[in-house]
From TrEMBL:
NCBIfam families: redox-regulated ATPase YchF (TIGR00092). Residues 2-258 form the OBG-type G domain. It comes from Mesobacillus foraminis. This is Ribosome-binding ATPase YchF. Belongs to the TRAFAC class OBG-HflX-like GTPase superfamily. OBG GTPase family. YchF/OLA1 subfamily.
Length: 365
């Protein structure tokens, strides 16, 4: 499964946020295929469509889809030089698919800041620079080898060399590799380099309790937003401390607490949805009387692959996907009505599944 790694300097609220994640934790019995690891927190992906489908179908059970966050502790200045837990830290980042960088945007004199004062942009730059330096090392190693081959007129090397030079230029001017544009061909080469700064990045601005309802007065958040805009990255505002409390609540209790705080959705739920879509993930549903359930797929996946998310037998024996869009099903009011209205399609193996499709797979066993 794809996972988003949580990183940040010491004392910015990572552990607090990760606690909230494990606290909110998904019913693990429902997700036997998820990673069991103390550093991985499995959360349910909030989706209002699942509530509507449950009302409509009245199943015995409803199961949301899940998403994994990985806690990556231990970045310090100098990580790329292998200081402290540096190397280990970078190795862990290499394994995740997206990065959620927690940034301290709360003032609290009781909590020490590693560099002496709250300055989110300088914090971000410390971390991003470590990632950039690590990538520069990878690119430099590769460029050395490729340059030799290019001199011997090796065709692949001749093609790769200018790409590596572009990457090197970007990294040397302290820009992440994700700001460089690649062709599809080049993207394959870049993938093989296992760079850190090609991973999508999301900034999690951790604000104080007083700023949750309206963070617009928090100048740190404004700065992070401006920075992220240049970096093509998204910003989610949370108060990790409050998220810990919210995570203990469910249903009506949770809604009441949120409305007392003056917010519609918890910061954690926003973060989950943002990370999910940042990774190119989408949701389809199965809706039977036994169980209404949400399933995760990668955008662009075809019907048989999506069937394989449920079980590999479904993919192997795939025949057809009886498909209706969530909107059409809701408008019809029942599966039977949607069928009558001609909204239920029989899709074959080349069908590209869309977010919100409600599917019944037919397959051979
Ligand atoms: P980590 O080192 O990044 O994992 O940071 P922690 O989660 O351990 O948080 C460091 C300190 O900041 C702890 O004392 C937390 O209680 C406190 N803290 C975390 N989030 C908030 C917040 O939103 N507001 C305030 N006032 N304190 C926070």
């Amino acid at each position: 499964a794809l996972t988003a790694g949580i990183v940040g300097l010491p004392n910015v609220g990572k552990s607090t946020l990760f606690n909230a994640i494990t606290q909110a934790g998904a019913e693990s019995a429902n997700y036997p295929f998820c990673t069991i690891d103390p550093n991985v927190g499995i959360v349910e992906v909030p989706d209002h469509r699942l509530t509507k489908l449950t009302e409509l179908v009245q199943p015995k059970k409803t199961v949301p889809t899940a998403f994994e966050f990985t806690d990556i502790a231990g970045i310090v200045k100098g990580a790329s030089k292998g200081e402290g837990l540096g190397n280990k830290f970078l190795a862990h980042i290499r394994e995740v698919d997206a990065i959620c960088q927690v940034v301290r945007c709360f003032a609290d004199d009781n909590i020490t800041h590693v560099s002496g004062k709250v300055d989110p942009i300088s914090d971000i730059e410390v971390i991003n620079l470590e990632l950039i330096l690590a990538d520069l090392e990878s690119v430099d190693k590769r460029i050395g080898r490729v340059e030799k081959l290019a001199k011997q007129k090796d065709k692949d090397a001749l093609a790769e060399f200018p790409l590596l030079s572009r990457l090197k230029d970007a990294l040397e001017s302290e820009k992440p590799a994700r700001t460089v544009e690649f062709t599809d061909e080049e993207a394959k080469v870049v993938k093989g380099l296992h760079l850190l700064t090609t991973k999508p990045m999301l900034y999690v601005a951790n604000v104080g309790e007083d700023d949750v309802a309206d963070p617009s007065g928090n100048e740190y958040v404004q700065k992070v937003r401006e920075f992220a805009a240049k970096d093509n990255a998204e910003v989610i505002v949370v108060c990790a401390k409050i998220e810990e409390e919210i995570a203990e609540l469910e249903g009506e209790e949770k809604e009441m607490f949120l409305s007392e705080l003056g917010i519609e959705e918890s910061g954690l739920d926003q973060l989950i949805r943002a990370a999910y879509s940042l990774l190119g993930l989408a949701t389809y549903f199965t809706a039977g009387v036994q169980e209404v359930r949400a399933w995760t797929f990668r955008r662009g996946m075809k019907a048989p692959q999506c069937a394989g998310v449920i079980h590999s037998d479904f993919e192997r024996g795939f025949i057809r996907a009886e498909t209706v869009s969530y909107d059409d099903l809701l408008a019809g009011g029942s599966m039977a009505a949607a069928k009558e209205a001609g909204k239920v399609r029989l899709e074959g193996k080349d069908y590209e599944v869309k977010d919100g499709d409600v599917i019944h797979f037919r397959f051979n066993v």
